[in-house]
Every structure is written in structure tokens, then in C-alpha cells.
Amino acid sequence: MEKEKRSVREKGIIRNIIKWIIILTAIVIVYFWKNDEINDAFREMRHFPVITSILCLLATSLHFVVEGRIIHDMTMYEERQMTWFEAFKCGLYCAFYKLISLGSLSGIAEVYYISKTGIDPGRSSGITIAQYAYQKLGVTILGVVGFITLYAGGISTVREYAKWGILGTLVALIIVTVLLLVSVSKKAVGILAFLVKKLIGSEGLIKNIKGVSADRKRDVIIGKLYTFNDAGLYFWKHKTLCLKVTFLKMLKMALWYSVSGITVFTALSLRGDVTIKDFLIPLTLMAVANMIGTVMVAPAGAGTLEFVVTLLFAPLYGNTAATVVILYRFYSMVVPFLFGAIVFATDNNKNKT
To answer: 150, 343, 111, 137: which is closest to 252 by C-alpha?
Structure first.
């Protein structure tokens, strides 16, 4: 068993190294391929007033204030509820691991941080999995509403790529529907567990997985399905909390999306008069881009979001699309990582003393 665990850990490290090699290679290729656009973006940012950076920093800070509130609320029925500050630090701690592992360790980091405050690890896992479902639901609601609003408003890029927007919407809705069914229906999770048994294991189609036994992999997947179901049913008893968390998830994502609105509004204001639409349209476009980008497979969404943002923003705002991508990634990944590194370092120091 110990040998198997060590093998899984080593594979995880290798996978993360491979992910980073792919991402860094892609960054280098894109830099040389889109060198002019990227240099134009940095030149544009040099003309941005300081208030733009302050507003973007405020938006990402409030994002984690809301995230802290969500985690705090989701532990309210435990024997010991996390304080808001503990929950706030938990969100930043996960952001630290999200960047260094490109998403693969953020869930594990959240389970660890919640459980170390005195909450049962099983319940911590359930809270984390339920959070993921509400996150997907919030992103999808904002994306669908945004797509319909922009299409009805005649935004050219949304209409031009309408079929892809519709496809992305359908895929997102299917994912959310499956997540909700698994979280509130014993029958649905039973069907999925049956399918997993038929696909993976000594009697399934996949009888051998390199580095770990197929039976072990099957049991882990089925265990996670039932943990998710238990957590979903637990929270479904408190429907007001479910609605509140969904709303807060939408609010926290809207705060990040506002970085694109602030960026475009600032860029256009340097060229002439602007209106509130110059803030709201890019914010809503980012909601659509995130909905579509999150259903495309890539480590932490790297590359897919940039691709979708370029398609939607470039025809409307020119090279400012590159500015949007750079600032959005900086304030949604790099800044939280830096804040999270402080939480990681201070918590480790406390553990040593």
C-alpha cells in the first residue's frame, strides 16, 4: 500500500512538471508569435493611471473576501464553524496551490485547511466537493445570462460565434445538471457507480492502470461519488444556504470579471469618451469566455480562456484584448498566489514553533 501511495505521489509530481513544461513552452511560442500585440499591450498598460491597478487589486481582494464568506457559511452546521478570517486564509491558501499545481492540488489543499481547523476530514471533503458544484453552477448561470444578453444586444462577436457559444452553453449546462443530479439523487450516483464498475476494475473494460491497480482506482472514484452525494444531500436540506452560496459564487466571479471591464474602460477612456456600457460589455463577455473556457480541457484552464477571450474581444477592442488577458491572469492567478504564499509561509512558521 505504501509503495502504491508513493508511486501515485511521484506520478502526480511528474504530471505537474509536464504541465508546467507545456505551459511555459506555449507561453514562449505565443510571445514570439504574438510579439507585436503583447508589446502593444504593455505599452498601453504603461499609460494606465494608478487608480486602474487599485481597482483591479480591490476586485481580486473582494473576490477572496466573498470566498471567505462562502466557506464560513458552509461550515455553519459543523460542530465548530470556521471563522471568517480562517475561511478567508483558506481561499488564499488554495490559490497558492492552484498556481503551483495548475489546479490539481487546490481541492486537496482546501480539504486539508478546513480539516486542520477541527472539522472532520470527511466533512471537509464533502464541503470542498459541494463548493465545486456551486462554483460550476455560478459560472454557468453568469455565462448563460451573459450570452443571451449580449446576443440580444447585437454584440457582433457573440453573434459571429453564436454556434460555439451555444455549444459551450449546452456542455456547461450538461456538466452542471450531472453535478446537481449526483449531489441530490441516490439513484443517479448509483447509476454512475454501476457504470464505473463496468468500465474500471478486474471485471471491467479497463483492467490495468499503470502505477495503480484498476480496482483501487475504481474504489477511489466510487468513494468520491458517494462522498459528493452525501455532501450534496446534506446541504440540500438547507436550501436557503444553497441559494445563498450560489449567489455568492456568482458575485465572487463577477468581481474577477470586472477586471476586464476596468481594463477596457480605462483603455477606451484614454482614446475618448466612455459610457457605463464600456465597462459592462467586457465584464459580460468575460463571463461568457469563462463559461466556454472552463468546459475546454486544459490545466487550470490555461490557454483555453486566452483563446476564447481573443476571439470575443479582439474584433471589438483590438490589441486591448491582449491587455485584458494579461491583467485578468495577473489579478486572478498571480496576485492570489502571492497572497496565498504569505498564508502558506506564516502557517508553516506557526506549525514549526
So the answer is: 137
Q: Can you tell me which residue has the cell 498566489?
A: 337
In this structure, are residues 210 and 198 in contact, taking their beta carbons and an 8 Å threshold?
no
Closest CA to 182 of 227, 127, 222, 229: 229
Tens-place pLDDT, residues 164-177: 888 888 888 888 88
Which residues are paired to 206 by β-bridges?
200
Q: Which of 62, 45, 97 is nearest to 254 (CA)?
A: 62
Quick: pLDDT tens for 80-120: 899 999 999 999 999 998 888 776 678 889 989 999 888 88
Sign, CA dihedral 141-142-146-149, equals positive
Q: Is 266 exposed, middle or buried (0-12, 13-18, 19+ CB in 10 A)?
A: buried
Read off the C-alpha cell for 240: 436557503
Here the cell at position 128 is 470542498
For the chain, the maximum distance between any two Cα atoms, rounded to a whole number of angstroms, is 68
| 103 close to 299: Cβ distance less than 8 angstroms | yes
What's the gap between Cα 172 and its chain centre? Answer: 13
Grid coordinates given for 113: 485547511
End-to-end CA distance of the chain: 32
pTM confidence score: 0.83
